[in-house]
Amino acid sequence: MENAALLSPADVHVIRRYVHTKYAPLPEAKRADIVADAIRRTVQRRMPELPAEFKDRITDELIRKCLVLQRREIKPEDVLDVCAEIELPDPASEAMILDPVLRWMNEKAPGAWNPEGVAARLFPRRNAPDAYGTAASSVNANLEALPGGSAERLPIRVRIPKLAWLLASAMLAGGILAGVWLGQPAREEAALPAPSADARIESPIPDVGMPLFLRYRDIDAEAVKAYLDTRDSLLAEEPYFGAIVENARVFDVHPLLLFAITGQEQGFVPKSNKNAKKIANNPFNVFHSWEEFNTDIRHSAEIAARTVSNRGSARPEGEEPFAWLNGTYAEDPNWADGVRKIFEKLSSLSRSSPAPAASEP
């Protein structure tokens, strides 16, 4: 089973190369986020068909343990070891893990595993003597035999800490593995083994629907407001700023995408415009224009966010995301390029960034 890794250096290389080519215009940090997410999805697809609650925890621990801490490939046996560390709530849960893992291991190595062998790896302490020389299974049996005794098994496994995966995820997304797998220098790429056929066929990120980088995430509000101030934008103030961010959250749209649309449609609504307060009611020009549909910012932001979300979710394979949104949102074919450039500009902002000149996009 040496060549049956769930995730190998070659696979990580394929994922990284795919993301860095497909999403080349994005900042490095955002590409790292996409790589980390693609790695997690790939591992999950190659695991046994376990209940979601177990599969998520096992995936997170495999990434933390093998990729982040030990910096090596993930092997099928690692799944057995991680399963053995998970605290199971009741005996029925053992069967929910044992059966699919047994089938999966025998698919990897036909005839090499039997139920007893897999059970011994998955539940190593089931018959292990405790400090008093009594097997855990015997203790549980004795408890069940007592009048009014509990049939619940003793807690003999530890739960994977959530903090551990948060740390692992941050390391993956932040490029801590640079120079090992995710950031392999170009001079070392020739040393990587050729990607497996499985790695070539599987697309790490389905190129359909709303892309991950355009879905909701928290933003540096102060940095964005500071930039909007350089544009004399009324949208830096409340209720405008808050309404845009809140509706982006509700409809799972990146807030900076909505702000980018206002930048393309109305130049972020400069206060110097005599109609600024009216334009700010509908800076997205939903239903043609702010003049034809002058509502309030909460209503127009809701309509814009819903429109972008619905359109983005329907994006077919191969369609460039901004160009796809252009098809519904605006008749101007240059709209997509304008929104993309503004989105990239806003995405580059941080508290440490110098204030841009007012003439910048």
Give an overview of the whole structure.
The chain has 16 helices and no strands. With about 350 residues, the chain is mainly α. About 35% of the residues are buried. The chain has 2 domains: about 10-125 and about 155-185, no CATH class; about 210-345, Lysozyme. The chain has helices at about 10-20, 30-45, 50-70, 75-85, 90-110, 115-120, 135-145, 160-175, 195-200, 220-230, 240-250, 255-265, 275-280, 295-315, 320-330, 335-345.
Give a nutshell description of this structure.
With 361 residues, the protein is mainly alpha-helical.
Mean pLDDT: 74
Tally of strands: 0
Shape: elongated
Protein structure class: mainly alpha
Provide a count of the helices.
Answer: 16
First-residue to last-residue Cα separation: 55 Å
Low-confidence stretches: 127-168, 173-204, 351-361
Radius of gyration: 26 Å
Structural domain count: 2
| Fraction of residues in H or I helices | 40-55%
Beta-strand percentage range: under 5%
List keywords for this structure.
Lysozyme; disordered C terminus; 52% helix; 0% strand; single chain; mainly alpha; 361 residues
Question: Could you give the topology of this structure?
Answer:
Blueprint: H1 9-22, H2 28-45, H3 52-69, H4 76-85, H5 91-108, H6 115-122, H7 136-145, H8 162-173, H9 197-201, H10 221-230, H11 240-250, H12 255-266, H13 276-279, H14 297-313, H15 321-329, H16 335-347
Helix pairs in contact: 1-2, 3-4, 3-8, 5-6, 11-12, 11-14, 12-16, 14-15, 15-16
